[in-house]
Amino acid sequence: MYDHIILRYGEISLKGKNRKGFITSLKKRVKQVLSDYPSIEVHQSFDRMIVKLNGEDPEPILKKLKTIFGIHSLSVAIKTEHDLNLIKEKALQLVKDQMGDASMTFKVTVRRPFKQFPHRSQDMNRDIGGFVLSHTEKLTVDVHHPDMELKVEVKQDGAYLSCNNSEGAGGLPTVQENKVMLMLSGGIDSPVAGYLTMKRGVKLEAVHFHSPPFTSERSRQKVEDLVKVLSRFGGDIRLHIVPFTNTQKAIQKEMPDNYSMTIMRRMMMRITEKLAEKNNALAIATGESLGQVASQTIQSMNTINEVTNYPVLRPLISMDKIEIMRISRAIDLYDISIRPYEDCCTVFLPEAPKTKPKREHANKFEQYLPVEELVEEAVNGVETIIIKEKDDSFGELL
């Protein structure tokens, strides 16, 4: 019965002169996600995007479209010609399909951007609603809190009718030039930070610090699996695996125990900055939440930030663990994140890390480390793989 899906832009509508670029990016992403359906057509207009199904089942397509940032809401729809009697017949068919045997309330909302259609919106609300009521049982009108809203949009190419409005992913569509390096551990927080960063129109590349033999191949696989989930929302993602064993050994040997976590995070930030420069990224994103652990106090962030001139994005900064876990579960990251495989941040965890580290102390201690050599060694040893959105195998080595 349904032959189209209507996509509504939401936040993109407010972008003024930049609106066209965002809509173009959104259309490109929609086509990319639906590339397995060559018969489908995608058409854009000022305030909507229309997906013509051409006989395809709408349910799996809706599921895919709900992962696309930039779509505020979406509805399966029926299209008909500019004929009021046809519109009323299709409206009745649609309402009966939605009702089944249940008792429901409804309202009709007509938009008429195609002003050449000879019937006014208010007249159509009354005519369509009256026709549907006279041909159904167990249906009543409630214009304030209806169980079902029948939407009719009269556009230049025809009238589109829909009832069930689904929420989209929201946010902004991915812009390839807006590249950010995500510092990705195997925990709960940083993958959620990656998801929320992508939601603001960012293209991610992920950086993971791997310390064999202290961290296992299962730990690495866990990270690849997390990136695979994130790729559903932002397309293919490059994952940079950084060899971090020698750096961690040097820190453990030369640094005071209570400052080792701070120095380790500073080294990670330096290495990520080098990778950002190398890959034309504009910022660094982390999964830090203010005050959650010792390395995430405001004093720690101040001391760690000293070593980079790049903007550091922290989308989880004001969230508590319960909020972060809720998002993690909602986007299918949580079960992967809790797999019991350690990452490098937990391998050499000190018993009493400094919660208020000072920059001057960190700089003093780092004089005993070959900082530049360790950074260069790590960057030169990076292994980069592409985690593909539509590939069941994990990784194309670069």
Structure overview:
- With 398 residues, this protein is α/β, with parallel strands linked by helices.
- It folds into two domains: 4-167, VC0802-like, CATH 3.30.2130; 179-397, HUPs (Rossmann fold, 3-Layer(aba) Sandwich), CATH 3.40.50.
- Helices cover 39% and strands 21% of the residues.
- The protein has 14 helices and 15 strands.
- It has helices at residues 19-33, 58-65, 84-99, 121-134, 189-198, 217-234, 245-254, 260-278, 298-305, 321-330, 334-337, 344-347, 359-366, 371-380, and strands spanning 4-8, 41-44, 48-52, 73-80, 104-111, 139-141, 148-155, 158-167, 179-183, 203-210, 237-243, 283-285, 312-313, 383-387, 396-397.
- The strands form two sheets. An eight-stranded mixed sheet has the order 2-3-1-4-8-7-5-6. Strands 13-12-9-10-11-14-15 form a seven-stranded mixed sheet, sandwiched between helices.
- Helix 8 (260-278) packs across helix 14 (371-380).
- The radius of gyration is 26 Å and the shape is elongated.
- The two termini are 46 Å apart.
- Residues 393-397 have low confidence and may be disordered.
